[in-house]
Amino acid sequence: MAHIVIVGGGVAGLTAAYRLRQRQPEIRLTVVDQAPELGGKLRSATLADLPVEAGAEAFLSRDPAVPQLAADLGLQVVHPSGAPAAIALKGRLHPIPAGTLVGVPGDLAALAGLAKATPEPVTHGPLLAPGADISVGELVRARFGGEVVDRLVDPMLGGVYAGRADQLSLAVTLPTLAAAARRCDTLVGAVRLALGTPTGPATGLAAGAGSPTAAARPVFGTIVGGMTALVQALAEASGAELRLGLPVRELARTPTGWRLVIGSTRSPEVIEADGVVLALPARPAARLLHEYCPAAADEIGVLDYASVALVSLAFPGIQMPEMSGFLVPASEGYATKAVTFIDRKWPHLAAPDLSLVRASLGRYGDERVLQRPDGELVDLVRGELADLLGRELPVPVDAYVRRWGGALPQYTPGHLDRVRRARAALDGDPTISLAGAGYDGVGIPACVRSGTAAAEHLTLH
User: Fold this and answer.
1) pLDDT recorded at residue 219
2) What are the residue ranges of CATH 1.10.3110.10 in the chain?
3) Torsion angle defined by CA atoms of residues 70, 73, 74 and 76, in that order, rounded to the nearest 10 degrees
4) What is one Pfam family matched by this protein (predicted)?
């Protein structure tokens, strides 16, 4: 009986285990993770005895990867209310303009009162050469000017990646826009083309947006019972042995397979395997690969990560604005970068006489605020939220703080080429594969696809 070890118990690793079980029902599977709980960045919690998400709260439902997986596992998907979102600027909450793709506008007239866009310069030929990659900020600044980046694109990307538009790869973070920019001579035209694209690559960003069928479907979804329900269902369906709270310290090729050393330095344990899926962040994966394949390790080891904190608050006896939440540009000077009105966005989580709010803090390169104690973060968010809303807020009846150190990959231009080279260096060995957000994009659909591809790559005899 073949034995596969999956290093990493996040959604990518668990999907790989599930897909391997489907392919080979008799296979032996072991999932090893240094965390005491499964799920990676998927983690449900409680706030005032109500379920909330302490990690990723939603997935792009227009990408079929997660809805199909949920259906296969017997889970129910629920969609948000459709309440609008806003941008906080100069003491006001401005609705996010329609026809934008992660803040990049397809109609400059829609930006009136929000950001001044410069007229697009004349370009002869496509905006982006085949195979080329630049930062999102570089492209948008050159076409529309700095205000569009600072007031729209940067806060949008900050909410998803905790990164900055001027550093994040266009090809990874906005793949449909990158593809359209290789065909269009204006950015407005590229945005419109991208919004009309019926399918997208692994990251799923804007996948399906604008097509007649997709337009009738909600953009986002979540799992009834919380994201932890997805984690538990995948683990159970995989039938894998779970080894939690145990770091993987060494990985070595043997004549018949792989040798992994797990656990503490005082009481290490050796596991023999026929195949391995590395579904953990890029830097620890690079450390494990260094002896076996230094070329792959060097390519993925350069990926950096941002840390974030999520602060959830339950306020008694007040009503929040009729919107799903808002984003806060870094230029506004607040530590809070995104706010979700949980019960406004997700009606199935509404509770009488309570308003549930979740705030995100932490931007790449400026993470000092995350060093504050939990109580200070709660007070900081409450004070900034009151200032942003222009109203006094009562003391919350409950609060929950979750810190995610090194949570979000920072894809610089050229990331996809680095990953391709890393996988090419490993391609001669069909008993090892890479999976996860560090390679194929953030978002649950991207991780599901990545885990599926990693399982399909393994060929055992």
Assistant:
1) 84
2) 100-194
3) -20
4) Amino_oxidase
Fold for 3-41+229-303+412-457, please state it.
FAD/NAD(P)-binding domain (3.50.50)
pLDDT for 461: 54
Q: Which pLDDT score is estimated for 217? A: 61
Neighbour tally for 131: CB within 10 Å: 9
Quick one: pLDDT at residue 205?
Answer: 26
C-alpha–C-alpha distance, residues 7 and 16, integer Å: 10
pLDDT at 448: 98
pLDDT of residue 85: 95
For CATH 3.50.50.60, list the domain ranges present in the chain.
3-41+229-303+412-457
The pLDDT tens digits for 312-363 are 999 999 999 999 999 999 999 999 999 999 999 999 999 889 999 999 999 9
Where, residue-wise, is CATH 3.90.660.20 in the chain?
A: 305-409
**pLDDT below 70 — which residues of the chain?**
197-217, 461
Write the secondary structure of the chain as one string of H (helix), E (strand) and C (coil): CCEEEEECCEHHHHHHHHHHHHHCCCCEEEEEECCCCCECCCCEEEECCEEEECCCCCEECCCCHHHHHHHHHCCCEECCCCCCEEEEECCEEEECCCCEECCEECCHHHHCCCCCCCCCCCCCCCCCCCCCCCEHHHHHHHHHCHHHHHHHHHHHHHHHHCCCCCCCEHHHHCHHHHHHHCCCCCHHHHHHHHHCCCCCCCCCCCCCCCCHHHHCCCCEEEECCCHHHHHHHHHHHHCCEEEECCCEEEEEEECCEEEEEECCCCCCEEEEECEEEECCCHHHHHHHHCCCCHHHHHHHCCCEEEEEEEEEEEEECCCCCCCCEEECCHHHCCCEEEEEEHHHHCHHHCCCCEEEEEEEECECCECHHHHCCHHHHHHHHHHHHHHHHCCCCCCCCEEEEEEEEEEEEECCCCHHHHHHHHHHHHCCCCCEEECCHHHHCCCHHHHHHHHHHHHHHCCCC
The whole-model pTM stands at 0.92
- What is 305-409's CATH number, 3.30.450.40, 3.90.660.20, 3.40.50.720, 3.30.360.10? 3.90.660.20
Whole-Å CA distances, 418 to 63, 133, 165: 25, 12, 20
CATH code for the part of the protein at 100-194: 1.10.3110.10
